[in-house]
Prior knowledge:
Elements lengths: L12 H15 L1 H39 L3 H55 L6 H38 L1 H16 L1 H15 L2 H42 L5 H11 L6 H14 L3 H27 L7 H44 L8
Helix pairs in contact: 2-3, 2-5, 3-4, 7-8, 7-10, 7-11, 8-9, 9-10
Amino acid sequence: MFKNKKVPYLNLIPILIISFLLFKVIDNVEFLAEGFGMLLSILTPFFWAFGIAYLLNPLMIHLEKRFKLKRGISLLIVYAIVIGFITLSVTIISPTIASNIGDLANNIPEYAIKTESWIRSNIQKLNLNNNKDIISWINNLLSTSSGKLTEILNTGVNTIFNKAVSFTSSFLKMVFGFIISVYILNDKELFKNTIKRFLYATFNTKSVDNFLVFTDEVNRLFSQYIIGKFIDSLIIGILCAIGLTILKAPYALLISIIVGITNMIPYFGPFIGMIPAVIITVFFSPIKALEVLIFIIILQQFDGWFLGPKILGDKVGLNPFLIILAITIGGGISGVLGMFLGVPIMAVIKTFLQRYMTKKLEEKNIQESTK
Length: 371
């Protein structure tokens, strides 16, 4: 009879295998990064599909609950609305925006001359001609600012066209994602139940219950904030277009879209949208630019004090400091998209930390201070 002898150092084999795999990963990090990028590119339509389905889901649920519609009918109505909006944008709004951008680019030199002439004429009215230092400073400012502004605007126009070309190259992926989103919405309950079954089969029941409660709260935060902010910014964009049309401001549609999009960013968005609006108008007429500036300030005050609170309320539960912190960090990491998504992400982090601290305090029998 042979006795079972324990092989020496057998417990080191898993450590050696893991170390070898880690070495291979580090040694081929560029190849792995390239492969990961290719995988993300392949999965891009599914990211689009999930995003589109997530945004359209509340409207579908509302139709089903409000009008007692079946899933197929509600999907048909939702996608008919979306396709109608896209058709309207492509056939009416997009050509007008493209025309405004092209006209602005072509007329920049003329607008710069008009602005310079207006400033010089007002200098004469103010009797500043006797002060040579002021006149010299203003002339230098005009000569340098005109060229810089022209260069900035031309660069901005070129950037917009380059982004449009880049967007067109990924258009098929977006269309494919649009089609996949139909199936995601149609079978969303099946997907949710499958994920729940997997979680309950794999992890502790109490942990899964807590996780599902947390994900429901995260979903509520994101959906209410994103959809509410979209509706709020859409209304502001429409009101801006109506107001600028009444003021007979140039490029009213282009400015309104800029104001509406930047309004999606809390706190800083209104100021970000105001700057290009004034710069675009000042070349046409400085007086008109002042009117546009005053109008947008009034519009943003209306949004901040009345419209925004009515639509959004206190959806995220963050104080101004945390909102500004979220916008700053998000903008530094991912630009404009990060500035927008930073707020709900910060709300999720705050919710998670509050739950964690409450749980730990209860375990230690420490009562939370209400002060």
